[in-house]
Amino acid sequence: MNKLTSPPNPSADHADDYCGTTYAAKLLGLSVGSIQHLVEQGELAGWKTQGGHRRISLSSVRAYQVKHNIKNTTQKTAPDKRLRVLLVEDDTLTREMLQQYMDNTSPSIDCTAVSSGLEALMEISNIKPHLMISDLKMPGIDGFELLRTLRQNPQFKGMKILALSALNSDEIESRGGLPINVIYKSKPVKADWFDGFFLGLSIDLTGS
Predict the structure, then answer these.
(1) Of 17, 32, 44, 72, whose CB is crowded by the most CB atoms within 10 A?
(2) Are residues 49 and 89 in the same domain?
(3) Do the Cβ atoms of 7 and 127 come closer than 8 Å?
(4) For residues 49 and 39, is the Cβ–Cβ distance under 8 A?
C-alpha cells in the first residue's frame, strides 16, 4: 500500500475514516515510532495536516491487522466509537503529561495535542473532537478567544469543553469570563480528578 501525502477525502464529515498516530499505535500494539516507520515504508497509509499532525487511514490499519494476524487491542470499543480529544496547551511539560495520561487511561481515547489556539483552529474541523481541553493563558490566540470563537460556531455546538488554568476567578472575570457550558478546573489538576471526569463523561458518539 502506498503512503499518502494528503487524505483520500479531506471532508470533515469523514473524521472517523482516520485516526492519530497514538491511536493507531494502540490498535496495533506498537510504539508511535513504529507507526511512523510503517507510514514511511508504505505499510500504512498516512498524511500530515496543515498543522503538521500525522493522520493514519483506519482501513490501512485494519488491513495491516489482518495481514499480520494482530488482535485488535481496542476490540471493546469500535474504531468509529473512539473518544476524540483535542488538547490545547502551550506548556510543553504539561501538554506531554496530559497526553500521556490520556494515552494510558483508555485505548478508546484518540488525543491530538497542539501548542496554540491558532493550531487548534487549524486542526479542529478535521478532528471533529467530542471534547476539547484547553489552557486559557497562551500567547497569540489565547484560550478565551479560542473558546468564544468555537462557541459562536454552530458546527461545534455539541462539543464539550474543559478549560484548565492557574488564573483565579477574578482574573477570569476581568477577561470577560468563560462562554456558557464550559467546564472549568483550576491548575494543577490531579490524576484522580481526571479519572472521575472521564468516568463521568457522557458523550453520544453515534450522533457526533
Answers:
(1) 44
(2) no
(3) no
(4) no
Task: Give 68's contacts (C-beta < 8 A, 6+ positions apart).
Answer: none
What are the b/e assignments for 81-101, b being 16+ CB within 10 Å?
ebbbbbbbbbeeebbeebbeb
Q: What are the φ/ψ torsions at residue 106 (nearest 5 degrees)?
A: -155, 140
Say how far apart CA 51 and CA 49 lie, in whole Å.
5
Q: How far is the C-alpha of 207 from the C-alpha of 172, rounded, in Å?
A: 33
Tell whether 97 and 173 lie within a shared domain: yes
Question: Residue 143's domain is classified under what CATH number?
Answer: 3.40.50.2300
CB 113 within 8 Å of CB 94:
no
pLDDT in tens, 152-171: 999 998 899 999 999 999 99
CATH of the domain at 38: 1.10.10
Q: State the pTM of this model.
A: 0.72
Q: Is 106 within a domain?
A: yes
Longest dimension (CA), the chain: 58
Q: What is the pLDDT of residues 95-128, one digit of tens each?
A: 999 998 988 877 688 899 999 999 999 989 888 8
The whole-angstrom separation of Cα 32 and Cα 20 is 10
In whole angstroms, give the CA distance from residue 98 to residue 22: 13
In a domain, 100, yes or no: yes
